[in-house]
Amino acid sequence: MPTRTKFVILMHPDEHKRVKANTGRLTHLCLRDSELHLGISFDEHEAVQALINDPKNYPVLLYPGRGARDLSKGELSAADFAGRRLVVFLLDATWRKVRPMLRTSLTLQRLPRIMFSNAAPSRYRIKRQPEPGCLATLEATHELLLALGRSGLDTYTQPAQLLDLFERMQDFQIRRATENALRGDRRHVRRIPAETSAARAPDGPKRRRIFPAAVVG
Predict the structure, then answer these.
(1) 45 found inside a domain
(2) How many domains does the chain have?
(3) For an engineered disulfide with 129, which of 2, 57, 92, 134 has Cβ 3.0 to 4.6 Å away?
(4) In b/e form, how buried is each residue of 6-44, taking b as 16+ CB within 10 angstroms?
(5) Do 21 and 98 contact (CB within 8 A), yes or no?
């Protein structure tokens, strides 16, 4: 799929091991102008640093929270680019592991941050998200492209492609889990959450929430 925006997926090594349910890799395969790099800290990563330091690029980090520009509210415009190419970095890991990735990468911390709001709930059926608003990398990219399209910053030509692939991947996993269960092979049975897109309940009042205020993507 062609896009005006360049997407750079920074994948935690643990995500790389999940070959069959790796939505970051699926996203990379769908987007023509995308790169995927493996690691935890990226300050010494030559390809990542080259993209950040290229004067022709406008690099940003997709990371919700205070100070992030909400594309759904028009807080990023073409004037901000000044003719440069928008390059979006995405951290592909569980939220527990995303924080160390960002903490150990000072150059990523310095990037302007973007986000989107009012996203559709996660469509994950084979995995429970830690709380409402959390999305798989593929879903987050889909919602980001929708927001970029509404702002006139990109053209999302095939909005069904990413989600269709996401559903097909999950259907395959559910089918295999059922087949393994019927054969009595418990070693390879994936436990499917009881409710579609159900978010795990908070562990208690002291649990640190990922999204401290409104639900965002």
Answers:
(1) yes
(2) 1
(3) 134
(4) bbbbbbbeebeeeeebbbbbbbbebbeebbbbebbbbee
(5) no
- The answer to whether residue 133 sits within a structural domain is yes
Residue pair 37/6 in contact (Cβ under 8 Å)? The answer is: no
Domain assignment of residue 33, given as a range? 6-161
Is the separation of the CB atoms in 37 and 48 below 8 Å?
Answer: yes
- Asked whether the beta carbons of 92 and 10 are under 8 A apart, the reply is yes
User: Does residue 42 lie within any of the structural domains?
Assistant: yes
**pTM (whole model) above 0.85:** no
pLDDT by 10s per residue, the chain, length 217: 999 999 999 999 987 766 555 788 889 999 999 999 999 999 999 999 999 999 999 999 999 988 999 999 999 999 999 899 999 999 998 878 898 999 999 999 999 999 999 888 777 766 666 566 678 899 999 999 999 999 999 999 888 888 888 888 878 777 877 777 777 765 554 555 544 434 444 444 444 444 444 333 3
Distance CA 95, CA 140 (A): 13
Structural domain includes residue 194:
no
